[in-house]
Amino acid sequence: GAVHDRDVNAARNVLAAGLAES
Description:
The chain is an all-alpha fold. Helix content is about 90%, strand content about 0%. The chain has one helix at about 1-20. This is Transposase.
């Protein structure tokens, strides 16, 4: 559902931010 999609997007954002900082 919408909440799950939002959580997935948040997780991707966190992962992308971590990769960008490394």
